[in-house]
């Protein structure tokens, strides 16, 4: 029978018997995966299409919660949309604020040490509320929740590989449609001849240099000021658009000639809209996958430059 060791016992085993220590680590990983599977198979939780449909037929409403990051919420939407199609029940989405954020290997994040704060939630709600498959979206206070979409963080799903847009489907068994758009907004016509770009500090491919974009007119950057100041060193003529909320950001991306971004929040919007989009893929973490028409990704400089030229020459 497996027994979890305390810190002193683990360190002692690591330094005195490396073979047994490796065996212990393997058994520990298996136990975590078993615990996660037991949660998913719990008869009292809505973790299968059959249980979700039965509950929705009885209650007429499904209340979901999510604590962010913002991009994770956008990537949860196709599963939520599929849940609505499957049940035709009222869908309520509650955003949990102030959940801790662990920045492994990175120094900064726009929200500091939390995944979602009040201001970020307000900006998200402007984009989420008009979506036809969400009947209500708001901040979680004391509402009862039927499905906690955050449980993908419990350790049973590898978060550094695969596709973020499938995390919530692994919890619920509800299969999302990822090749079609799941966000609906009106395009901003002012950006029809503009390349829109975003690049966060995290998830960068450090072999890439965007200096070549200086030969393209009409490039704007959407993101926080520190990110803009960083890209401006390479592309001095790039303009910065400070959005009031994420509905405005989505309308700009929808109206643009095409979008370039790394594995950050603005790309999740571009992916949800299925606009022409180019993803800068990180060598360290590959968990964003463009799916459907006009989605491109790259590792190498030559391919990036070719993609930009191709999309820019489209009529």
List the helices and strands and how they pair.
Layout: H1 7-16, H2 18-40, H3 49-59, E1 61-66, H4 70-87, E2 90-95, H5 118-128, E3 136-139, E4 147-148, H6 167-172, E5 195-198, E6 219-221, H7 225-232, E7 239-240, H8 246-255, E8 258-262, H9 265-273, E9 277-280, E10 295-298, H10 301-312
Parallel strand pairs: 1-2, 1-4, 2-3, 5-6, 5-8, 6-7, 8-9, 9-10
Number of strands: 10
* Coarse morphology: globular
Strand content range: 5-15%
Low-confidence residue ranges: none
The strand line-up of the biggest sheet is 7-6-5-8-9-10
Q: In this structure, how is the largest beta sheet organized?
A: 6 strands, parallel
User: Number of DSSP helices?
Assistant: 10
The helix-strand sequence is HHHEHEHEEHEEHEHEHEEH
Average pLDDT score:
89
Q: How far apart lie the N and C ends?
A: 66 Å
Report the helical percentage.
25-40%
Q: What is the number of domains?
A: 2
Q: From the alpha-carbon coordinates, what is the Rg to the nearest angstrom?
A: 21 Å
Q: What structural category characterises the helix and strand content?
A: alpha/beta
Structure overview:
- There is one protein chain.
- Helix 9 (265-273) links the parallel strand 8 (258-262) and strand 9 (277-280).
- This protein folds into two domains: 49-172; 189-312, Glycogen Phosphorylase B (Rossmann fold).
- Helix 1 packs across helix 2 (18-40) and helix 5 (118-128) crosses helix 8 (246-255).
- The longest helix is centred in the first third of the chain and has 23 residues, at 18-40.
- It has helices at 7-16, 18-40, 49-59, 70-87, 118-128, 167-172, 225-232, 246-255, 265-273, 301-312, and strands at 61-66, 90-95, 136-139, 147-148, 195-198, 219-221, 239-240, 258-262, 277-280, 295-298.
- By secondary structure, the chain is of the alpha/beta class.
- The chain starts with 6 loop residues before the first helix and ends with a helix.
- The relative contact order is 0.12.
């Amino acid at each position: 029978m497996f027994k979890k060791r305390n810190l002193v016992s683990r360190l002692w085993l690591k330094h005195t018997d490396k073979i047994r220590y490796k065996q212990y680590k393997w058994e520990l990983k298996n136990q975590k995966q078993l615990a996660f599977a037991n949660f998913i198979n719990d008869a009292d939780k809505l973790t299968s299409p059959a249980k979700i449909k039965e509950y929705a037929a009885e209650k007429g409403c499904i209340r979901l919660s999510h604590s962010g990051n913002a991009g994770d919420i956008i990537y949860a939407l196709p599963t939520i949309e599929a849940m609505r199609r499957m049940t035709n029940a009222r869908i309520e989405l509650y955003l949990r604020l102030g959940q801790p954020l662990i920045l492994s290997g990175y120094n900064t994040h726009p929200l500091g040490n939390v995944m979602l704060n009040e201001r970020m939630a307000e900006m998200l709600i402007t984009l989420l509320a008009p979506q036809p498959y969400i009947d209500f979206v708001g901040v979680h206070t004391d509402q009862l929740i039927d499905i906690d979409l955050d449980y993908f963080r419990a350790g049973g799903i590898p978060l550094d590989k695969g596709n973020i847009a499938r995390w919530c489907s692994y919890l619920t068994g509800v299969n999302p449609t990822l090749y079609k758009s799941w966000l609906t907004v009106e395009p901003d016509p002012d950006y029809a001849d503009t390349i829109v770009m975003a690049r966060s500090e995290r998830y960068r491919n450090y072999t890439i240099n965007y200096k070549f974009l200086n030969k393209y007119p009409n490039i704007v950057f959407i993101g926080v000021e520190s990110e803009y100041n960083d890209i401006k060193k390479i592309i001095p003529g790039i303009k910065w658009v400070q959005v009031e909320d994420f509905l405005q950001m989505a309308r700009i991306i929808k109206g643009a000639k095409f979008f370039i971004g790394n594995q950050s929040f603005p790309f999740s919007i571009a992916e949800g809209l299925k606009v022409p989009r180019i993803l800068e893929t990180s060598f360290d973490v590959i968990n964003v996958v463009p799916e459907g028409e006009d989605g491109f990704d790259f590792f190498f400089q030559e391919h990036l430059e070719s993609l930009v030229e191709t999309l820019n020459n489209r009529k």
